[in-house]
Design a protein that fits this description.
Elements: E1 5-7, E2 13-16, E3 21-29, E4 36-41, H1 53-69, H2 80-95, H3 98-114, H4 125-136, H5 148-167, H6 194-201, H7 209-224, H8 228-231, E5 239-240, E6 245-248, E7 251-256, E8 259-263, E9 273-276, H9 279-293, H10 314-328, H11 337-350, H12 354-361, H13 366-373, H14 382-388, H15 408-411
Antiparallel strand pairs: 1-2, 2-3, 3-4, 5-6, 6-9, 7-8
Helix pairs in contact: 2-3, 4-5, 6-10, 7-9, 7-11, 12-13
Length: about 400
């Protein structure tokens, strides 16, 4: 034992020459490495320094109990990086669509690298709080510089990974839940107004075959509100020219134009829907189908949005939007902004009900629709108040019908 530390009445608990308490002990032999599992600490699970030998002993007792509960697990000192590589990331990949995993993979790797060398059981409230602060701090101040919604997503991944560690009996508790969650915040998705959309399509020369496709694609997205991967999955057999309907029953999972999969379901179960089409859209689609036939496309199982038989990819759609928005002198939007543009168009031009919009957008409930688009209805009651004015005849009594028996001041 170091001469600068002294034993206390608790086995494994010591006090140093400055009066600070700590524990130091061995739990046994790691069955994989053959090395002794040693544990030393000066703080409790919440990161608070021990103020007495009793507190240090309580923490040591807790750790011993945890160790024995999981002693069937060979490597007590597994790092967070090992856990992510060997357990959580492989598990997550089997639970979600490949497209979802491809999107989340980078976040999972960021999480893994942040705590890579930290033993899973040593991740503390202090670690988590520092990470939360870093996520929400700007780059100029030494932070990650992420938007609040992205920071919320990453922090949520950390919580879920530690929940899985508990489920696997590697941990007793999820320390991240002792730290306040990061609220998603309001993600504002830019969209085009009717006037902006008109400016955009005015820039497209549809005599050119490829530009004709660009026009049709932007028009259909704007006029139907379908999701990007629902649109890229459309075959001509999804378009009913007689009943003027569009069946949205598929989504496209695509890595590149030659490597794709057309799933027979949409993002959510309620996403499967049939959308009524206006006469202008029917006319535009008919003309495009005939144009496709000139090069041997336009068959029932050919893609609607295609110039060579292969599907469109999201990055190409983004480039098309960027090109024409620049020509038109309007703001650049994301491909998903066309979906928001459709919602704005229906609300502002036709004051559509939330129920109709919910069904058209493929939401599971009107509540979801309100969550995303409630702000677009602001001012929609202006027309109503104009009609309310003078609607109720205002005529009040000429004498009171109340007999006062109490307050004399009121009588006077």
């Amino acid at each position: 034992m170091n001469k600068t530390q002294q034993k206390t009445k608790y086995q494994g608990v010591y006090v140093d020459d400055k009066g600070n308490y700590f524990y130091q002990t061995e739990f046994g032999i790691d069955r994989i490495t053959g090395k002794r599992v040693r544990k030393k600490g000066r703080k409790d699970r919440n990161g608070k320094p021990f103020s007495s030998a009793s507190e240090a002993n309580k923490e040591l007792t807790r750790l011993k109990r945890e160790y024995h509960k999981v002693n069937s697990y060979a490597n007590y000192k597994m790092t967070y990086g090992q856990f992510m590589n060997e357990v959580y990331i492989p598990y997550y990949k089997t639970e979600v669509e490949q497209s979802t995993f491809d999107v989340k993979k980078r976040i999972l790797e960021k999480m893994r690298d942040r705590f890579s060398s930290v033993p899973l059981r040593s991740i503390s409230v202090e670690h988590v709080q520092e990470f939360r602060t870093w996520l929400l701090t700007s780059k100029e101040n030494g932070g990650a510089g992420y938007s609040q919604s992205y920071a919320s997503l990453i922090f949520g991944v950390l919580r879920k990974s530690l929940d899985k560690a508990i489920e696997m009996q590697y941990l007793e508790q999820n320390v991240s839940k002792k730290v306040k969650a990061i609220q998603k915040g309001k993600a504002i998705v830019p969209y085009w107004t009717k006037r902006e959309f008109e400016k955009v399509i005015n820039q497209i020369y549809i005599e050119d075959f490829y530009e004709h496709l660009n026009f049709v694609m932007l028009w259909v997205y704007y006029m139907t509100g379908i999701r990007v991967n629902e649109g890229t999955a459309l075959y001509w057999n999804n378009v009913d020219f007689i009943k003027k309907r569009l069946s949205v029953h598929h989504m496209l999972i695509i890595k590149n134009r030659a490597d794709w999969k057309r799933n027979s379901y949409t993002k959510t179960e309620d996403g499967k829907r049939i959308i009524a089409l206006d006469d202008d859209t029917i006319k535009i689609l008919k003309a495009w189908k005939n144009r496709q036939k000139e090069i041997g496309l336009g068959g029932e199982e050919d893609f609607v949005f295609s110039y060579d038989g292969f599907p469109m990819i999201k990055s190409t759609i983004a480039r098309i939007i960027n090109r024409y928005s620049k020509f038109a002198g309007v703001k650049k939007i994301q491909a998903k902004g066309l979906r928001h543009s459709h919602a704005s168009y229906l609300i502002n031009e036709f004051n559509v009900s939330v129920l109709v919009l919910s069904q058209r957008m493929g939401h599971s409930s009107p509540e979801i629709t309100l969550k995303h688009y409630a702000h677009m209805w602001s001012g929609a009651d202006t027309e109503i108040v104009g009609k309310i004015t003078g609607n109720i005849s205002i005529k009040t009594a000429e004498v009171t019908k109340i007999k006062f028996n109490g307050n004399q001041t009121l009588k006077k």
